[in-house]
Amino acid sequence: MKKTNSLLLLLVIALALGLAYVLIPKKGSVAGEVKPVKNLIVLIPDGTSLPVVSIARWAQWYSDPSKPDLAIDPYLCGTVTTFSSNAPIGDSAPTTSCYMTGYPSRTGHVSTYPEADGANDIYPMDPSRAYQPLTTVLEAAKIVQNKATGLVFTCEFPHATPADCSAHSYNRSKYDWIAPQMAHNNIDVVIGGGVSLLPQESEDYLLANGYTLYKDNLQGMRSDSNSKMWALYGSRAMDYDLDRDPNEQPSIEEMTRTAIEKLAKNPNGFFLMVEGSKVDWAAHANDPVGMVSDFLAFDRACQAAFEFARQNGETAVVVLPDHGNSGISLGKYECTGYDKLTKEQLFHPFSQFKLTAEGFAKMVNSKPYSEVQDIFRTYAGFELSKEELAALNHCKDYANSPVPVEKRSSEGIAPSLYSGSLTSFMAKLMTSKTCFGFTTGGHTGEEVFLAAYHPDNNSLPIGRRTNIELNHYLCAVLGLTGKLDELNDQLFAKHTDVFKGYTCEIVPGSDRKESPTLVVKNTTNQEKQLTIRPFTNIIQSGSNGEKIQLNSVIVYVDKNETFYLPTDLVRYLQ
């Protein structure tokens, strides 16, 4: 009898183990067993820590009892560890760069191989490849598969995340290098901010190559029927969703739907990256209203992507932040008894805010001082106390303060409210009315969420992944496994290697701001020469300067005085 019971027990254990084996996600399915699809949409809520998702969900549910869930909720499937090449905490440039290229990179680097940093490197880096541009998923989809490509964002277009998809620089701030690369990379649809940052040469290139271009022209974008379009809003970044005028600027959901509609016309499929850019900006400002409202706007863009993917049947969607920011928490030490507060007590005060910190700053600067209390009653649901009003009046950039600028100081102002900046004061004021806390105004290194949809459930990325693994997954979804490294060698070789045996001269620009030009000559045939300017896809061939348009951009790096360009350019000299 005991023997029979033992056998039955072993059988039960064996069955349980077998069932567990079937149910536990297989690590190999993340890249090796992924079924490729025609279209891929990647959505990145910049700087979104997991608590932002929780607070946004509660805030939405409180404001609308019929919406207890976010659009991303049914698709949450794991977490991602993001990092720089030599540090566990990264900024947007190297973290999104890793998603796009498969290589970790340095702070500030835009899709560029990092300098090696010895023992500090998380994974060994090759010193000989420092500063080499790295092919992105967007570039590979366009070049290898003739897919349509698109970018949607709410920051200015040369900012880190959109730049990571379509440009290359060791310095994310070099917009004069990045902006022309993005224009010359022949992205089909670009919608976002940055009207003042589009160079005239780039504008001329777009118009000459079949694009329609709209600047602060919402109706123009809405009526456009061209498959190739740039639509830019705002001098630099677009407004926060809560602050924007819907008659002047589109929502990120509308931008996403517009991009999908245009890109889906390509019979070869498309790649689209959508960034909820200013969740990160609000996090830097410790503005919980900006963080939550812009994340909820981003979540509606995710809904648009999921709807299309489910209906289309040939589309995968991946949603993931690039890093955390601000250390925001639902609950803080200063808020006595916060763990016993009801949903009403926690979220009613928060629901009263109708503007972000930036929006409040613009509002009070645009109205006379006599209307200050009316503004706060209307847009925040309370009046300023005597102490709060004093803190407002001592902000250095408050244009309508009754206190002369030279007399404004922190003396007598509560440290929790004083700030030289009007926007920063507004953020502190709003936070003081909540039980949300912050640990920093910078980036944080915790894992971020991962959500995904794939027509084949067995092809989903499940569990905890690294940003390198996510690049491998994105490549597998598009059938591009192994292609990025091939393209790195083909598209971004050093000019000294490509033109070995030929005469190369780097001619300095006419001033410090102008980039140098590479002139390559065949000394035995004067008709054979190339004139190459960086950050475009155009070269000039022969003594008559015939223009040749490439399918990739040329990059110059001043650190090592090297042009990175396609290996096959040598044929024009032979």
Query: Can you identify the CATH superfamily of the largest domain?
Result: Alkaline Phosphatase, subunit A
Q: Which term fits the overall shape?
A: globular
Biggest sheet: strands, sense, closure?
10 strands, mixed
Helical fraction equals 25-40%
CATH architecture descriptor of the largest domain: 3-Layer(aba) Sandwich
Which class do the helix and strand fractions yield? alpha/beta
Proportion of β residues?
15-25%
Give the number of DSSP strands.
Answer: 22
> Low-confidence spans: pLDDT under 50, at least 5 residues?
1-29
As a whole number of angstroms, the C-alpha radius of gyration is: 26 Å
The DSSP helix count reads 19
Describe what you observe in this structure.
The protein has three domains: 32-328 and 441-488, Alkaline Phosphatase, subunit A; 354-437, no CATH class; 492-573, Copper Amine Oxidase, Chain A, domain 1, CATH 3.30.457. Helix content is 35%, strand content 17%. The chain has 19 helices and 22 strands. It is globular, with a radius of gyration of 26 Å. The chain has 574 residues and is an alpha/beta fold. The strands form five sheets. It has a ten-stranded mixed sheet, with helices on both faces. The protein has a five-stranded antiparallel sheet with strand order 16-17-18-19-20, with no helix packed on it. A three-stranded antiparallel sheet has the order 15-22-21. α8 links the parallel β5 (212-215) and β6. α2 (50-63) crosses α11 (288-312).
